[in-house]
Design a protein that fits this description.
Elements lengths: L1 E4 L3 E9 L2 E9 L1 H11 L4 E8 L2 H12 L3 E8 L5 E7 L2 E7 L22 E5 L8 H12 L5 E4 L10 H12 L4 E5 H7 L5 H10 L4 E5 L5 E5 L2 E5 L12 H15 L5 H6 L2 H19 L9 H4 L1
Parallel strand pairs: 1-4, 1-8, 2-6, 4-5, 8-9, 9-10, 10-11
Antiparallel strand pairs: 2-3, 6-7, 11-12, 12-13
Length: 306
């Protein structure tokens, strides 16, 4: 079982309809997308978060349920759904968030389950670790569960929502000692540590606690840092529709692969051979590449990857 905790929101993506600019709603939010990706790849997954009772919230529930995700840990709220306006730029998609007092930002400690299933992995990340009170609630969950189960983290940095970069970086580096697997993009690392080599940052992060640090590099592929060993894979060549959700699809694929390999524990993750880590990266890169061939965060189903 994999428990994914965090935000659920609506991405408003631009398109042209009869020559007019329009925005199409797509279910999204990084942890939400990860849960959808895991479910579509056939691994047991449960989403933990707060979803609005409004029309967008109903869309979010229906979409994630259809993707095979268990909603036992979902709390319903009367507030509006967070909206993320997606604007394409030369450097990739830029996100503007409308998230003041929205449902997914108001998760409180009393909304958390008293205990997670034995042996379940836990995944966290993205803006749910920035916006209060959800951020403190999930930080408390991370502290409670650290050392009890495999925990993965994808910071999925959104500079637009980070008024104090130094304070955010201190928090992020503090989380590293509590997690076992980190996935981060090269773009995130370049914003966090301008001018530093991403390989050196990955090695430094690895020394702070995680068993495995994985860095995605878009069309260049990805690499993993583990015990003084750097392992790389190339990205499959595809025709890109957009890159929304590609990193989340990569993360979901990592977790689904580890579940199938019976490696959802710190010890099992550390015991993976170099060849297995390359296989893990290659599978995740394939899943992310398929996601890039269609608009919105729309990760593939298991039969598409097979």
């Amino acid at each position: 079982m994999i428990v994914v905790a965090g935000e659920a929101l609506i991405d408003l993506s631009p398109t042209q309809i009869n020559g007019q600019l329009a925005y199409i709603p797509h279910p999204g939010g990084s942890p939400y997308n990860v849960a959808v990706g895991v479910g579509r790849l056939g691994a047991p997954v449960r989403f933990l978060g707060r979803i609005s009772s409004d029309g967008f919230g109903q869309l979010l529930r229906a979409h994630i349920r259809q993707s095979g995700v268990d909603l036992e840990y979902v709390v319903e709220g009367p507030e509006l759904t967070t909206l993320a306006l997606v604007t394409p730029t030369e450097g990739g998609e830029f996100f503007s968030f409308y998230c003041q007092n929205t449902a997914d930002t108001l998760l409180r400690p009393q909304d958390l389950p008293a205990a997670l299933p034995p042996g379940a992995a836990l995944h966290l990340g993205s803006i749910s670790l920035l916006l209060e009170p959800t951020a403190s609630t999930l930080a408390g969950l991370l502290a409670r569960e650290a050392g009890q189960r495999l925990i993965s983290l994808d910071p999925n940095v959104r500079p637009f929502l980070i008024p104090d970069k130094a304070a955010y970086l201190r928090k992020l580096e503090g989380w590293l000692s509590q997690v076992d697997l980190v996935k981060v993009s090269q773009a995130d690392l370049e914003w966090l540590y301008p001018g530093q080599r991403v390989e050196e940052i990955a090695a430094e992060w690895k020394s702070q606690g995680p068993a495995l640090v994985i860095v995605t590099q878009g069309g260049r592929g990805a690499f993993a840092w583990r015990e003084e060993e750097l392992l790389r894979v190339a990205a499959p060549k595809v025709t890109v529709a957009d890159t929304v959700g590609a990193g989340d699809a990569f993360m979901g694929a990592l977790l689904a692969w580890l579940w199938r390999a019976d490696a959802l524990s710190r010890a099992a993750l550390e015991a993976l051979s170099s060849e297995q880590v390359r296989e893990l990266l290659g599978f995740a890169a394939q899943v992310a590449a398929i996601t890039c061939t269609r608009p919105g965060a729309d990760p593939p189903w298991q039969q598409e990857v097979a």
